[in-house]
Design a protein that fits this description.
It contains 3 helices and 5 strands, in the order αβββββαα. Strands 1, 2, 3, 4 and 5 form a 5-stranded antiparallel sheet that branches. It is an alpha+beta fold.
């Protein structure tokens, strides 16, 4: 029987990003994972990404924090409104339970997916071909 690939749950992906970030020495970075793709009327792609933003508090503290969020963007050539503003949660300590921290990403990703789907239904921007 053939299998159907489904997108992973954004909360699971972000929890894994948070776990991985604990081992990195980098103090500031934003990691993102694709959480949805839509094709516009004109053939361009609107992509939704789940975010995990890691930062170190300012001196004298060395505590690292994490914020989770979502963003959607249209890659259409000439798109008049290509970006759904990224939304992020309040910062929590990186050492907190990653599953609990990542749960907050689900409603943010859903809001970004809804924007992306509405945008894809109306956007007539063409796919960028590099020419």
């Amino acid at each position: 029987m053939p299998t159907t690939q489904t997108a992973p749950d954004p909360a699971d992906v972000v929890a894994e990003l948070i776990r991985d970030a604990r081992n990195w020495a980098t103090s500031h970075f934003t990691s993102d994972e694709t959480a949805g793709r839509f094709t516009t009327v004109g053939g361009a792609t609107v992509e939704v990404r789940a975010l995990a933003k890691i930062a170190t508090k300012r001196y004298p503290s060395t505590d690292r924090t994490v914020q989770v969020g979502a963003v959607a963007s249209c890659s259409g050539h000439g798109c008049p409104n290509p970006l759904h503003e990224p939304t992020l949660t309040d910062a929590v300590p990186l050492d907190d339970d990653p599953d609990k921290s990542a749960e907050a990403v689900t409603p943010l990703v859903q809001a970004a997916r809804e924007w992306a789907q509405k945008h894809a239904e109306k956007c007539r921007a063409q796919a960028y071909t590099g020419r």
